[in-house]
Design a protein that fits this description.
Length: 205
């Protein structure tokens, strides 16, 4: 007569541990996918709001009022019709995206949202005093919401292609070190200057 075999305690513990690891991996993967989807939605919302703001300006010579972005009641409203059918809001907080404008309300605007991926090239902690406004921003076309990441477009930026040799680069497509803004000694490609004591390097954004 065959003797019945049974799982030992160690075998049971191994199976439980494997199941726990698989469950944890699934949770982490799901959370990462959800965060990416949330970040994409924030970017899409702000990009659509930017277009709506510019269309609104074309008709009113001013940007939409702050009062449209200060209450949960504004979420899902039709304030921006016909430029945008439904007012999008932060899905996690249920609040409108953060709006800042100049004193007149008619010169510039900035809109802030929150993305969670610090590796995103447009992830940046925007603060106002000790208050975090968001980690992603769009603005009217006449200002730059990312002064540290995307410098003044009217300037020319240079980095050290070699020792005592510099060349220009586009800071919106890559970041280079060491680098300088409007260095007169580097006004031509391959120009020489006193800046470059070591060869620099660049990283694509």
């Amino acid at each position: 007569m065959l003797k019945k075999s049974a799982f030992t305690l160690i075998e049971v513990l191994v199976v439980v541990a494997i199941l726990a690891l698989l469950t944890l991996a699934a949770i982490v993967s799901f959370g990462g996918s959800r965060d990416k989807a949330d970040d994409s939605r924030v970017k899409s919302d702000l990009d659509r709001l930017k277009i709506a703001f510019e269309d609104y300006y074309s008709d009113h010579n001013c940007y939409p009022p702050l009062e449209w972005f200060d209450s949960t009641a504004d979420c899902g409203s039709d304030h921006l019709q016909p430029y945008l059918n439904v007012m999008p809001c932060n899905r996690k907080t249920g609040l409108p995206y953060t709006l800042r404008k100049d004193a007149t309300g008619c010169t510039w605007f900035k809109l802030y949202g929150t993305i969670t991926n610090p590796a995103d090239p447009k992830y940046y902690s925007f603060t106002e005093g000790s208050t975090l406004l968001g980690t992603y921003a769009v603005s009217s076309s006449n200002i730059n919401p990312y002064p540290d990441l995307y410098p003044n477009p009217d300037s020319t930026y240079y980095y050290c292609i070699g020792i005592s040799t510099c060349t220009d680069f586009n800071p919106s497509t890559k970041t280079c070190t060491p680098s300088w803004e409007n260095a007169p000694e580097c006004d031509r490609v391959g120009g020489s200057g006193p800046f470059c004591q070591t060869a620099g390097s660049c990283t694509p954004l």
